[in-house]
Amino acid sequence: MTPHVEPDPRAGAAVKAADRAHVFHSWSAQGLIDPLAVAGAEGSYFWDYDGNRYLDFTSGLVFTNIGYQHPKVVAAIQEQAGKLATFAPAFAVEARSEAARLIAERTPGDLDKIFFTNGGAEAVENAVRLARLHTGRHKVLSAYRSYHGATSTAINLTGDPRRWASDTGSAGVIRFWAPFLYRSAFYSTTEAEECARALTHLEDTIAFEGPAGIAAIILETVPGTAGIMTPPPGYLAGVREICDRYGIVLVLDEVMSGFGRTGSWFAADLYGVTPDLMTFAKGVNSGYVPLGGVAISAEIAATFDKRPFPGGLTYSGHPLACAAAVATINVMEDEGIVGQAAHIGSTVLEPGLRELAARHPSIGEVRGTGVFWALELVKSRETREPLVPYNASGADAAPMVAFGAACKKNGLWPFINMNRTHVVPPCNITEAEAKEGLAVLDEALSVADEHTV
Known about the structure:
Blueprint: H1 9-22, E1 38-42, E2 45-48, E3 53-56, H2 59-62, H3 71-83, H4 94-106, E4 113-117, H5 120-135, E5 139-143, H6 152-157, E6 173-176, H7 191-209, E7 214-220, H8 235-246, E8 249-253, H9 268-271, E9 277-280, E10 292-296, H10 298-303, H11 319-334, H12 337-359, E11 363-369, E12 372-377, H13 398-409, E13 412-413, E14 415-417, E15 420-423, H14 431-449
Parallel strand pairs: 3-13, 5-6, 5-7, 7-8, 8-9
Antiparallel strand pairs: 1-2, 2-3, 4-10, 9-10, 11-12, 12-15, 14-15
């Protein structure tokens, strides 16, 4: 894969200048960032105006599940724009209806009603609203290691430090510890212990908060940005049973883990659990046009048969976004992309990452599934001290910054969060491309190794 245009540094400088003059970037101190000016992208790669090419091990923000510029999806967007570029959400529109049908066919259980949003955070907002209205309760439980979005309720549900500046402490959110054996909050030594103790902790939290006041428990089926911690066997089934016992709505957040990322259509399929509500976004149309939504169970949908749902969005089920979703799902089906993600994960990424762990003392743990992996980088395997402190910045974050720079120098764009690097390429990455990325990681990890003790 090579850039399709000649290098043009002057054009890149103009793009960068306009960005720095007028674009206000998310999650950033505006005067301290230096965004790369991107000239183009295709498949698993993108390139800048100087002709430097990068293998994208981030899938954008874990959303280009079929890679960049898939011709069938681009053509579907163009065709839809020529036919019906936009229309209000109160009408039945072919692209919207077909997208909902295709999604409902793939969601577990009876999650057959689809409420469309513009992205994942809005999906979470509306899932919580549905749960509260359905139950008549207000409290919502969420895990400390989590990310659910940046809108008002979603950011309060989030467990990571991005919540701190916006946490009102009055959103009806109660946090708990979900299982994570490597850094167990329960002093567990086995997955079975971690599962049992995490479930006991959750049930104790419910008891002391008062189950009659709890509307929902929301969990990322496999937490994404927080560290890709696959739940131990039996945990999600145990949460499902607790929710059933107390009349609590189970919401699974599949914004990042859905649509092939874990080697199945949804991560919930791996655990045999059907939630009452499921949020999605990102991979539903590979991020080509903003789209998210909530898949709703029959019981909760019936609550609003005669009672209006008090929520909506101007662009709910936007025709261009839905046409992209239809094309993306069909491409994933026709090209066997979900199976490809599972295959690459089991035959290339998992063995390759474990081989790296055997050689690099900075790797404390390898975890994941499909094309959804994390390397936990540590100063010491014995103490498990993170390579950089929690929420590190400035000089404290220098080891991870150096690791990232080493990746980019050799043509790999890494996903870095705190002391971890996540390996989250497109679901249809080839074996050769995946091995290329692993080779760059191998060299870059030598930089991380310099900071071990």
